[in-house]
Recover the amino acids of this structure.
């Protein structure tokens, strides 16, 4: 089973993870766990703006039904083709799916290479303030 791991929050940790990844790649020191498919969002707002309920429905429909074209994907979710096309392009940029040219009948075929999406959200309820421990509102 191929899983896409999505993490949300803690911008500083995301930055550190990205720097460590680059260092590991340069040193050719990646293990299988670090090479897993991961998508990171810095804030919850970024996450919900990118993965709307309509886009999640589209991802699921493509994964389950394997449509042969964008038009067929739009029919599966009963949405306008141009809106689905826009969503597919955004999902491709995020790396959640690929758009393969030359599918059956020459159409562009959306393909979701994952069986599952797992999401971890770090959503602080209280502002931790500055690094010196002073609350941000002080």
């Amino acid at each position: 089973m191929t899983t896409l791991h999505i993490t949300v929050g803690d911008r500083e940790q995301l930055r550190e993870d990205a720097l460590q990844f680059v260092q590991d790649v340069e040193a050719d020191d990646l293990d299988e766990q670090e090479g897993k498919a991961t998508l990171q969002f810095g804030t919850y707002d970024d996450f919900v703006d990118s993965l709307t309920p309509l886009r999640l429905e589209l991802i699921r429909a493509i994964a389950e039904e394997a449509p042969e074209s964008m038009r067929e994907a739009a029919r599966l979710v009963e949405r306008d083709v141009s809106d689905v096309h826009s969503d597919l392009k955004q999902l491709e940029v995020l790396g959640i799916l690929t758009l393969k040219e030359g599918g059956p009948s020459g159409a562009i075929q959306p393909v979701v290479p994952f069986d599952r999406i797992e999401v971890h959200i770090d959503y602080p309820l209280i502002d931790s303030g500055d690094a010196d421990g002073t609350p941000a509102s002080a």
In short: Residues 1-119 form a domain with the Arc Repressor Mutant, subunit A fold (CATH 1.10.10.10). Residues 30 and 101 are 31 Å apart (CA to CA).
